[in-house]
Design brief:
two-stranded antiparallel sheet; 8-stranded mixed barrel; 18% strand; binds magnesium ion; alpha/beta; binds ligand C2E; 339 residues; globular
Length: 339
């Protein structure tokens, strides 16, 4: 009945947005997320109904593109939890309480360390639980905390990496940070304050912002590269990646999304998809990193496909700076005793 009708309308809306739009000669892809709430209880007024539909819509958004979600009462509790988590995160950032883990990036042929990727870590003081970046980064993005968070991580990453001469340092940047025209200045200031070498720094960006704002993105990439910083396209293949972006932006490196590597285990065409992707990047002279490598069999295929840099549990998990120091010291000691 009512539910069925609403579902049909939602389906019609999604059909409409499946088509691309041509706006002044530009092809524009528009996503739609639908939230449905039903007023089966007369006590529910219009304001409450819209609020419920809104919660359902946000849930739909979180699930990915083109979804429809029907409101459930549990969404209210989840919403309250999320709210609490956001205020916990706000406090943690105000106290500069986030930590950074570092995961090795290794030479695909020799397994030698080439650099490390900085990954944000947060232990919620109130609950004592560690919260995954997959959870708190989106919260930070939605609540305007990401800029501060990102700069704190950048500062800590550069400070630690000063102890690791010869290693590159990669830091993730969220589209929301990239949107700020002052971002290159912030990066430049932190490089100066930490005394880091800009040429060792790579910023990892995802494609979302480039798709939506190509001109602005290009200006910001230019400004960052003028500082000597490298730009790497992260999670390639997980979204709207296109050949056009590879040409337009002059990326220094591309990281194939982890989902392609895990697909090697169970999808027959995965090796050819990876080979084609790497060949394409190489045709633009862009070297390719494979991330999320857990097993030697995956590494063999990726090596043959032409990836020159690896990252994954097989080579090292994300670890505290002190762990990195220990491992580096050990390898120096070994070199000395071998000599
Ligand atoms: P990412 O940038 O693609 O980072 C790689 C993620 O893959 C990390 O997850 C890492 O722990 C995980 N990983 C590495 N090797 C393996 C493997 O062999 N197997 C599996 N299953 N996973 C592996 P993590 O640390 O949970 O971070 C998740 C995402 O959160 C990152 O994906 C990045 O997009 C975001 N993130 C983390 N730190 C920051 C940050 O400081 N700023 C921003 N904007 N985003 C961040
Ligand atoms: Mg990354
Ligand atoms: Mg990635």
């Amino acid at each position: 009945e009512a539910c069925q009708d609403a579902g049909n309308i939602a389906a019609a809306i999604h059909r409409l947005f499946k088509e691309t739009f041509n706006i002044e000669g530009r092809i524009v892809v528009v996503g739609a997320s639908v939230g449905i709430a039903l007023a089966d209880d007369p006590a529910i007024d219009a304001v409450e109904l819209v609020r419920q539909a809104d919660l359902a819509m946000y849930r739909a958004k979180d699930l990915g593109r083109g979804r429809t979600v029907l409101y459930e009462t549990t969404f209210d509790e989840d919403h309250a939890d999320l709210h609490q988590l956001e205020s916990d995160l706000r406090e943690a950032i105000a106290a500069d309480d986030l930590a950074v883990a570092f995961q090795p990036l290794v030479d695909a042929k020799t397994s030698q360390w080439l650099g490390v990727e900085a990954l944000a870590r947060w232990v919620n003081k109130r609950t004592g639980e560690s919260v995954s970046p997959e959870t708190f980064i989106p919260i930070a993005e939605r609540s305007g905390l990401i800029e501060l968070l990102g700069l704190q991580i950048l500062r800590k990453a550069l400070t630690e990496s000063n102890n690791w001469p010869g290693l590159k340092i990669s830091v993730n940047v969220s589209p929301a940070q990239f949107r700020n025209p002052a971002f290159p200045e912030h990066v430049s200031r932190i490089i100066a304050e930490t005394g880091a070498d800009a040429r060792t720094l790579t910023l990892e960006v995802t494609e979302g912002f480039f798709v939506r704002n190509p001109e602005r993105a290009q200006r910001i990439v230019k400004a960052l590269k003028a500082l000597g910083v490298s730009i790497s396209l992260d999670d390639f293949g997980s979204g709207f990646s296109s050949i056009g972006y590879l040409r337009q932006f002059d990326f220094d490196r591309l990281k194939i999304d982890r989902s392609f590597i895990s697909a090697l285990d169970n999808e027959a065409n995965a090796p050819s998809v990876i080979q084609a992707t790497v060949a394409l990047a190489n045709a633009f002279n862009i070297p390719v990193t494979a991330e999320g490598i857990e097993r030697e069999e995956q590494a063999i295929i990726l090596r043959l496909s032409g990836c020159d840099e690896f990252q994954g549990f097989l080579f090292g998990r994300p670890m505290a700076a002190s762990e990195i120091n220990k491992i580096l010291r050990r390898s120096v000691d070994e070199a000395v005793s071998a000599a």
